[in-house]
Each structure stands twice: as structure tokens, then as C-alpha cells.
Amino acid sequence: MYIIDDGIRLNAILDRPENSPEKQPLLLIIHGFTGHVMERHIIAFAEAANDLGIATLRVDMYGHGSSDGQFEDHTLYKWLTNALTVIDYARTLPFVSDLYVGGHSQGGLTTMLVGAMKQDVLSGILPLSPAWMIPEYARKGELLGQFFDPYHIPDILGVWHDKTLKGNYARVAQMIHVEEAIERFHKPVLLVHGDADEAVPYEYGVKAAQMYTDCEFVTVPGDTHCYDYHLDVVTDAVKKWFRKHLCISE
Ligand code: FER
User: Which residue of 1, 26, 76, 233 is surrounded by the most CB atoms within 10 Å?
Assistant: First the structure.
């Protein structure tokens, strides 16, 4: 299935648990930088929600997975307009009661930003290991371990996984101020972060959790950016948080 955002087809997978009632909550799930809807931790995130009777909508963002757009052209602005469109699509689904947004890493950052933009139509957000240091790092001239002059950004930032990324990615990232999005958001938050994360420093998870007014923070002890060792700790945290917020008994 595709959701169209301004002519760009976004590949989307909607999962509704069997024997779903007429109305049910829906969780929109956003993958990370170079990620897609079929990654192990993205599928596990969806299945944890589905186990509780929550529908999920996993979407490949611009230039990722099976969606339109080139990876090298993607920016956080494009992902944000994608997320706004997908949220509005979800709101048109007749079976949706409460709407939640969750995402991993760059998708977690997108979740935090779009959460602030759309908090009136959302019941909560679930940023997992959110890469909310990207704007700050871009202003200093560092992304994914590569350095550049933040006032003279090169046309091509670098190559990751055989994919190039244009400098416009950094120019956009420099203009984003995540603290304002955190301060604006007053609905419930679940923030999960591995304390051996090699891509997004764990300290950023701790700091964001302290800044949010209504945040539950779960540390995944000894785990990496994509939860190579304790994915079950993540899925258990997601289930526990949803049970509490949706008043589902064990
Ligand atoms: C970076 C660190 C982490 C970065 C992106 C990420 C583009 C995102 C990782 C992910 O989404 O998994 O410096 O720069």
C-alpha cells in the first residue's frame, strides 16, 4: 500500500490484529536513517503493539525502503512533511480511536518533532533511542563520525553503506531546535535507550527524558543502537507502557 505525500509514494504496511474491534488505537512507526519497515527491531516494535490489540502503520520515509525519492536527497524537513501526511492519513481511518507515534533513531527524532506539531491529535509518543543530537552535531560540523565546516557545507556530505548524502541534509538539520519541541510537548512519552549505544549517546536519552513533563524512561542495559542483545526489554517496555495508558489488564 502507498500513502501519497505531494506526489511521493510512501510504502506503508498496516497491521490490524485478528478479531479487531470496531475501534482500536493505532501506532504509527517510523524507522531510522538508512532503515526501512522490514528491519528486525521495527517489526518487533509493531508486533509488541499488535499483541495488545493496537493496530500499527509502518511507513518507509522519503528515500528509504520501497518509498519514492533518492536517499541522497532526503532531509529532516522531507521526513517531517511525510510524517504530517501519514498522521493525517491515519486520522481518516474509520477504526482508529487513539493515535500514537513512535520511531527509532532518526525516526525517533522525527517522532519528537512531529509530536510537538501534532500533539492535539496524538495520545502519546514513543521515541526509541532518538537521534535528537543530529541538529546540534550538524551545527558543530559532525555527522556519523565525519567532520565538515559547518559554515561551508560540502555538496556531498559523505558516503554511508554505499549511499551518498547531499549537504542539504546538514543545512536542514542545523535549523532544527529539538529543545523547543520537547518543551512544547505535554502528553505521555515512552523513551527507551540502550546504555551501550554506539550511534546515539545514551546521555541524550537521559536528558530528553528529564526535559519532558510526562516521560517514562527505560534503559536497556548493555545494549546497542538497534538492540542486538535485549530487544525483549524494548518490547516489554512498550507493552507495559501501553497497558498503563490504555488501561489494559495483564
Ligand atoms: C549521526 C548519528 C546517528 C547521524 C544520523 C544518525 C546523519 C542516525 C542514526 C539512525 O537513524 O539510526 O551522526 O547523522
Answer: 26
Q: Residue 136 contacts by C-beta under 8 Å, 6 or more apart in sequence?
A: 178
CA angle 62, 63, 67 (to 5 degrees): 70
Q: Helix, strand or coil for residue 214? A: coil
For ligand 1, whether the C-beta of 11 sits within 6 Å is no
Give residue limits of the domains in the chain.
Answer: 2-246
Give the mean pLDDT of 132-161: 94
- pLDDT for 250: 67
Distance 16 CA to ligand 1 centre (A): 30
CA-wise closest residue to 90 among 172, 189, 24: 24
Q: What is the pLDDT of residues 76-122, one digit of tens each?
A: 999 999 999 999 999 999 999 999 999 999 999 999 999 999 999 99
Q: Which of 74, 134, 202 to mutate to test the pocket of ligand 1 (most atoms within 8 A of CB)?
A: 134
The CB of 143 under 6 Å from ligand 1? The reply is yes
Q: What spacing in Å lies between the alpha carbon of 110 and ligand 1's midpoint?
A: 12
**CB of 14 sitting under 6 A from ligand 1:** no
Q: How far apart, in Å, are the Cα atoms of 206 and each of 210, 224, 232?
A: 6, 15, 20
- Domain 2-246 indexed as CATH 3.40.50.2300: no
Give the pLDDT score at 18.
86
Closest CA to 238 of 222, 218, 224: 218
